[in-house]
Amino acid sequence: MKSTGNWILWVIILITLGMFVSSKADMTEVMATPWLSASQALALVGTALLSMSFVLSSRARFLESLFGGMDKVMKVHHIVGGISFLLIINHPLFLAIDAIPNFQIATRYFWLSTNLSYSLGVGALYTLVITLLLTLVIKLPYDLWLKTHDFMGLALLLGSLHVYTISSDVSRYAPLRIWMFGLLGVGFFFIYI
C-alpha cells in the first residue's frame, strides 16, 4: 500500500510537470524542440525532487507518520535522491544533444565559462556528482561520510542560483517561478533544521 508521503511526492512531480506545460505558449513549442523540452522538464522535476530529498534526510518527526516509519523515510530518501540525480544529469546531456551539430554550443553545458548562469549550473552539476561519488562509491568513515552530505547543500545553492539567473520558463512564467522557488526554499529550510 502506498503511503501518504509517496502520494505527496507524486503530486509534487505532477504539479511541476503541469506548471512546465502551462509555461509554454502551446504544445507545438514542446514538439518542435523535443530534446530541449525534455531537458527542461527533467531539470525541473529533478530540482523539485532534490529539494524534497533534503526534507526526507532531515528525519523530521512528521515524516514517520507520512511514510510509515523512519526506516521507510530513509529508503524513500535514497530513491528520491537517486532519481533526482539521474534527472538532473540528463539536463545538460539533452541540451548538448539539442545543440548538435554545433560542438561549441554543445560543450558549454559541461565546462565553466564566462557565462555566469551556465557556470552556476555546471558548478551545481559537478558538486552533485563529486558529493554522490564520495557518499555512495568511496568507502569513508561514518563521520567523514556524514560531512560530505553538507556539500549537497552547496549543490542546491548553486542549482538555485542557476535557476534564478538563467533565462528560462521559470524566469518568464510567474506561477512556475513561485512553485520552484517555493520548493527550493523548503529544501533549504530543512537543511538547517
Can you walk me through this structure?
81% of the residues lie in helices and 0% in strands. The protein contains eleven helices and no strands. Helix 1 (4-22) runs antiparallel to helix 11 (174-191), helix 3 (34-57) packs parallel to helix 11 (174-191) and helix 9 (150-165) runs antiparallel to helix 11. 33% of the residues are buried. The model has no long low-confidence stretch (mean pLDDT 91).
What is the number of domains?
1
Mean pLDDT: 91
β-strand percent reads under 5%
Low-confidence stretches: none
The global form is globular
Major beta-sheet overview: none
Summarize the amount of helix as a percent range: over 70%
Q: Tell me the series of helices and strands, N- to C-terminal.
A: HHHHHHHHHHH
